[in-house]
Automatic annotation (TrEMBL):
InterPro entries documented for this protein: Fumarylacetoacetase-like_C (IPR011234), Fumarylacetoacetase_C_sf (IPR036663)
Taxonomic placement: Bacteria, Bacillati, Actinomycetota, Actinomycetes, Geodermatophilales
Gene Ontology biological process terms, A to Z: carboxylic acid metabolic process
Protein name, UniProt field: 2-keto-4-pentenoate hydratase/2-oxohepta-3-ene-1,7-dioic acid hydratase (Catechol pathway)
Domain Fumarylacetoacetase-like C-terminal, chain residue ranges per copy: 77-289
GO terms of molecular function: acetylpyruvate hydrolase activity; isomerase activity; metal ion binding
Keywords: Metal-binding
Length: 301
């Protein structure tokens, strides 16, 4: 199933996408204990199966404002760095890696992005030009945890996955380098576009997904998930080894080569740029660049 979080005439909601239409999940089904409409996060947390009852009156997909599938994650987005061979090499060669590295890590490099960094498709990525002049893009496959746990074995890891989405791990490279850690440079407000869809795991073949980024129509990144240094089961096993993963947690699995710092000279994002991130079966996440940080509105509870 392909889910969206959206803002329609009746307010925020969750729906299933079929073709060019959204079939809303009725509020009579998707309600919390206090009667408030539930977002996709709550449906995942309560163990919603792959299919749920939907309205028989669809909404044109073009007529609703799509939000990030999980507009405000309850915890930081868990991210993995240097997880494609060629990107790991380009990152080291760029001079922006302030941590010791021999090119390709022997263990997953894990960091996080603040929940306040998440924005939806169509929203503007803020320039934050008072803090950075080196804003970069990173196309990533996002893993949505459905069944939590600690010490999850790699061979059981995929049974803990609810589904997948697209993430653009926007990064202030100068902030990342100057502070000698990644959190601040990764967690600027609006620096985690997510969406447009959340697709259940049964519809996604992890072995052969094409991950691509286009800036103003120009192809910059293109790689298959088969090129991951550490695959999704390994990442889940590593992250959960001593930390409990919870339903609704999101893991960004790393970006391919072709980010802005991989060029000579670097090609950073500028005001007015259009960033398109596509992954097989997960759609295309489109955002423009420029303007101040935006305040979210109308997000599902």
């Amino acid at each position: 199933m392909k889910y969206v979080s959206f803002l329609g005439d009746a307010g925020p909601g969750v729906g299933v996408v079929l073709g060019d239409h959204v079939f809303p999940v009725p509020h009579g089904y998707a309600v919390s204990s206090d009667g408030a409409p539930m977002g996709l996060l709550e449906l995942i947390q309560r163990g919603t199966p792959g299919s749920v009852p939907c309205s028989t009156t669809p909404l044109p997909l073009a007529d609703v404002r799509l939000l990030a599938p999980i507009p405000r994650p309850p915890r930081n987005v868990i991210c993995v760095g240097q997880n494609y061979h060629q990107h790991s090499l380009e990152f080291d060669a760029s001079g922006y890696n302030s941590t010791p590295s021999n090119g390709v890590p022997d263990r997953p490099v894990v960091f996080t992005k603040a929940p306040s960094s998440v924005i939806g498709p169509g929203e503007v990525i803020p320039l934050h030009d008072n803090l950075t002049t080196e804003l970069d893009y990173e196309a990533e496959l996002g893993v949505i945890i459905g069944k939590g746990g600690r010490g999850i074995p790699a061979e059981e890891a995929l049974s803990h996955v609810w589904g997948y989405t697209i993430i653009n791990d926007v990064t202030a490279r100068d902030v990342q380098r100057d502070h000698r850690q990644w959190f601040l440079g990764k967690s600027l407000d609006g620096a985690c576009p997510m969406g447009p869809f959340a697709v259940t795991a049964d519809e996604v073949d992890l072995t052969d997904l094409l991950v691509e980024t286009r800036i103003n129509g120009e192809l910059r990144q293109s790689a298959k998930t088969a090129d991951l240094i550490f695959d999704v089961p390994t990442l889940i096993a590593t992250i959960s080894a001593g930390m409990t993963l919870e339903p609704g947690d999101v893991i960004a699995t790393g970006t391919p080569a072709g980010v802005g710092i991989g060029f000579d000279p670097p090609r950073f994002l500028s005001a007015g740029d259009t960033v398109e991130v596509s992954i097989t079966g997960l759609g295309t996440l489109i955002n423009t660049v420029g303007g101040p940080p935006q305040t979210g509105e109308g997000e599902p509870a």
